[in-house]
């Protein structure tokens, strides 16, 4: 989980409430030190990194000051990725106890946020809630008025001057890149070129001016890959080209164009902090959402036959059939990548073999990678599979060949229904109850509708469209916003509109 908010930088929204200020970052970082000390770490060592957002240089020094004044040893790692911040804790020989990543992922440039990690992984919502409450109490006790320049920034400057501690500096991204290169070399074990296993391969990386450019220049290129088709590798917190987001149509279209124009064998798209990714096949086919899950499932099930694949709730019928045809089991759960990953952890603890947990947003985690949602790890897994397949067959096929049996819907749509009542959670719950009762009573004059037997989020309805064709719809409540979301897929032309109306 991440705590996100707006920062006081030009955004074109003069009335937008600003709550993430230097003092807020200071007190939140100090509260994280308390969190670690309460768990038996008397003198924590905490690393702080950031994505390229323009507010980073304002907030990172404030957070570092919050760490040192609270009694921690602070480490400034500069530009980083979310997965790298966790790796900094678990890396061999590391003495870092916790880490903070300043990022707001794909959110607009005026937003920023904080992600927290310990050796056990990312902090969950209850821990972050308690941490923020502690930070608020510290702010009140200090008499700081957040947002007031003299009180807010002045307090942080005063505390930084009084503190004799100086943060260490660590180029964590270099260490993480070295680890990723090692994983690719070990994964491929190229018989003729162990150290340059990507020689002859052209890979176009679109980092969207986020933190992911290092993957091209520090991971792929040293292993022999031609990265000349890559674009937007330079970090730029204004994101001038497109939003770094594998779910964004403009981002995927830009990556497809880069692959086609450069004649790349495949393309990789990252979000801002590189905890999500997507693939573009060599023929320009975007492999995101259900296709990316199917690709990763096909790869994982070769190594872990019979494994259970956990996904979010809006995955397609075709994905379920594909996973089962590959010998796996599909566990369709809830939206929210933390929900998906946590369910995978629970299943493994119950003795169920579950190697892959993945959301249609591009978030995905593997048991073998510490259950960390890591876009760079998913990307390298796809690259390793790609190279191994070529070595085995001697042919120049693409990743899309693994998905030849994936059935895709004829149509798909998503509709967001706003709830204006302030008590939107309760109102939304009542609507869902009424919808469930209506479907159970026959859905009016609608023919062929039946409730999915198992639902973990909202109500999924199977739609018999005749001649063996099956559509579905899911009505669910948004995790955070005052709205209901209706997802529909159909195997027939006009089926989405028919189901919606």
Beta-strand percent range: 15-25%
Give the terminus-to-terminus CA distance: 36 Å
Helix content: 25-40%
Described by its quaternary structure, the protein is single chain
Query: What structural category do the secondary elements indicate?
Result: alpha/beta
User: What is the averaged pLDDT score?
Assistant: 93
Number of strands: 20
Coarse morphology: globular
Calculate Rg over CA atoms: 24 Å
Main attributes?
single chain, 501 residues, alpha/beta, seven-stranded mixed beta sheet, five-stranded antiparallel beta sheet, 14 helices, 37% helix, 20% strand, globular
Helices and strands in order, then pairings?
Blueprint: E1 2-6, H1 22-37, E2 45-50, H2 56-69, E3 73-79, H3 82-90, E4 98-102, E5 111-118, E6 121-122, H4 125-142, H5 149-162, E7 168-169, H6 172-188, E8 203-206, H7 214-220, H8 249-262, E9 266-270, E10 277-281, E11 286-287, H9 290-303, E12 308-311, H10 317-325, E13 329-332, H11 337-349, E14 356-358, E15 364-366, H12 375-393, E16 411-418, H13 424-440, E17 449-451, E18 459-466, E19 469-477, E20 483-490, H14 495-500
Parallel strand pairs: 2-3, 2-4, 3-7, 8-9, 12-13, 12-14
Antiparallel strand pairs: 1-5, 4-5, 5-6, 9-10, 10-11, 14-15, 16-20, 17-18, 18-19, 19-20
Report what the structure shows.
Mean pLDDT is 93; it is low at 8-12. It is globular and about 75 Å long. The strands form four sheets. Strands 1, 2, 3, 4, 5, 6 and 7 form a seven-stranded mixed beta sheet that branches. Strands 16-20-19-18-17 form a five-stranded antiparallel beta sheet. A four-stranded mixed beta sheet has the order 8-9-10-11, sandwiched between helices. It contains 14 helices and 20 strands. By secondary structure, it is an alpha/beta fold. The relative contact order is 0.09.
């Amino acid at each position: 989980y991440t705590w996100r908010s707006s920062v006081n930088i030009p955004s074109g929204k003069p009335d937008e409430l600003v709550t993430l200020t230097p003092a807020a970052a200071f007190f939140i970082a100090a509260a994280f030190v308390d969190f670690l000390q309460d768990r038996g770490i008397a003198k924590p060592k905490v690393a702080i990194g950031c994505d390229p957002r323009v507010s980073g240089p304002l907030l990172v020094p404030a957070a570092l000051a919050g760490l040192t004044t609270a009694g921690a040893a602070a480490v400034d790692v500069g530009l980083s990725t979310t997965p790298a911040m966790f790796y900094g804790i678990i890396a061999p020989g590391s003495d870092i106890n916790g880490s903070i990543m300043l990022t707001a992922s794909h959110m607009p440039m005026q937003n920023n946020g904080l992600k927290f990690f310990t050796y056990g992984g990312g902090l969950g919502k209850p821990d972050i809630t308690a941490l923020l409450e502690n930070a608020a109490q510290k702010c009140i006790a200090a008499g700081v008025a957040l947002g007031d320049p003299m009180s807010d920034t002045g307090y942080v400057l005063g505390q930084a001057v009084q503190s004799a501690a100086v943060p260490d500096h660590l180029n964590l991204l270099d260490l993480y890149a070295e680890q990723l290169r090692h994983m690719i070399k070990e994964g491929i074990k190229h018989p003729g070129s162990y150290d340059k296993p990507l020689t002859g391969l052209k890979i176009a990386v679109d980092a969207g001016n986020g933190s992911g450019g290092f993957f091209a220049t520090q991971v792929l290129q040293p292993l022999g890959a031609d990265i000349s088709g890559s674009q937007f590798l330079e970090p730029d917190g204004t994101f001038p080209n497109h939003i770094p987001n594998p779910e964004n149509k403009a981002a995927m279209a830009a990556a497809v164009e880069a692959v086609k124009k450069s004649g790349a064998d495949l393309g990789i798209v990252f979000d801002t902090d590189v905890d999500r990714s997507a693939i573009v096949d060599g023929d320009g086919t975007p492999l995101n959402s259900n296709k990316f899950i199917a690709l990763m499932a096909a790869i994982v099930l070769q190594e872990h036959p019979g494994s259970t694949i956990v996904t979010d709730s809006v995955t397609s019928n075709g994905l379920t059939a594909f996973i089962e045809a590959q010998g796996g089991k599909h566990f369709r759960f809830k939206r929210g990548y933390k929900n998906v990953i946590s369910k995978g952890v629970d299943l493994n603890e119950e003795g169920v073999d579950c190697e892959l947990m993945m959301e249609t947003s591009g978030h995905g985690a593997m048991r073998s990678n510490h259950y960390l949602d890591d876009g760079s790890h998913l990307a390298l897994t796809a690259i390793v599979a790609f190279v191994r397949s070529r070595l085995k067959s001697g042919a120049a096929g693409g990743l899309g060949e693994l998905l030849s049996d994936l059935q895709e819907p004829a149509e798909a749509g998503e509709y967001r229904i706003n709830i204006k009542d302030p008590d939107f959670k309760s109102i939304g719950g009542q609507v869902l109850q009424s919808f469930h009762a209506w479907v159970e009573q026959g859905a009016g004059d609608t023919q062929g509708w039946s409730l999915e037997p198992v639902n973990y989020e909202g109500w999924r309805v199977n739609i018999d469209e005749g001649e063996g064709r099956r559509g579905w719809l899911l009505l669910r409540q948004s995790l955070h916003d005052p709205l209901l979301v209706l997802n529909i897929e159909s195997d027939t032309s006009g089926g989405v509109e028919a189901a919606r109306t």
